[in-house]
Amino acid sequence: DQQVKQNSPSLSVQEGRISILNCDYTNSMFDYFLWYKKYPAEGPTFLISISSIKDKNEDGRFTVFLNKSAKHLSLHIVPSQPGDSAVYFCAAMSSGSQGNLIFGKGTKLSVKP
Amino acid sequence: KAGVTQTPRYLIKTRGQQVTLSCSPISGHRSVSWYQQTPGQGLQFLFEYFSETQRNKGNFPGRFSGRQFSNSRSEMNVSTLELGDSALYLCASSRIQGNTEAFFGQGTRLTVV
Predict the structure, then answer these.
(1) pLDDT digits (tens, 9 = 90+) for B12-49
(2) Cα distances (angstroms) measured from residue B37 to each of A69, A73, B20, B45, B66
(3) Contact A41 B106 (CB under 8 A)
(4) How far is CA A19 from the centre of its chain?
(5) Is A111 buried (19+), middle (13-18) or exposed (0-12) by CB count in 10 A?
């Protein structure tokens, strides 16, 4: 049973527009969430995180929103750039199980010039 | 500073053999976690080591084991290899236990034939 779900396997966006990547989770014990970006033949690169005590965290072009009641988080990239094209993974963890990151299966983002 | 280094990058083994993968974390990082990535299951947590002790373990059989040395370098061992063990094995390091903002290596691509 998948505890972290990324229901869109792929997303295509025009350069300069907003990319919105979504992630749903089922475990209410999760209290820390992370987004990673992965290029082919490379390991995932940490992008941004959010603690469950917040509902928004912003870092440059990247903003993560957390809706605890809906068990939903999203990553917004504004403006999208061709270099953002990669697979994006959502991950979650609970303080009681530190070290155990549960990953979604990823969303492949393509930003077209 | 140097990133997470995993060796070897690629490995081909035969069913029934065993394999050892190595991970050198970022200097100063004391936590090392291992993940298996397959197309069907995505990224799955194997175990985390901190201060030479296994702190957390995922749902993998006992054929998967690991250890961490006093310099924080970690090794992962898989015995009696099965075809289904073919995967990308990723190591992540973080400064403290808990994997928040973990930094990943490029991975070791293991193929079992």
Answers:
(1) 999 999 999 999 999 999 999 999 998 878 889 999 99
(2) 30, 23, 17, 9, 17
(3) yes
(4) 11
(5) buried
Q: Tell me, what amino acid is at A1?
A: D
Place of tokens 């504004």: A78
Whole-number pLDDT of residue B2: 73
Q: How far apart are the first and last CA of chain B?
A: 37
Cis peptide before B8 (omega within 30 of 0): yes
> Given CB atoms, is B12 within the 8 Å cutoff of chain A?
no
Q: Quickly count helices (H) and strands (E) in chain A.
A: 0, 11
Q: Each residue of B7-27: b (16+ CB within 10 Å) or e?
A: eeeeeebeeeeebebebbbbe
- Best residue in A32, A45, A94, A98 to probe B by mutation, most B CBs within 10 Å? A98
CA dist., res. A19 & res. A25, Å (int): 20
Query: Which member of B44, B56, B106 has the closest CB to residue A97?
Result: B56
The Cα A80–Cα B71 span in angstroms is: 41
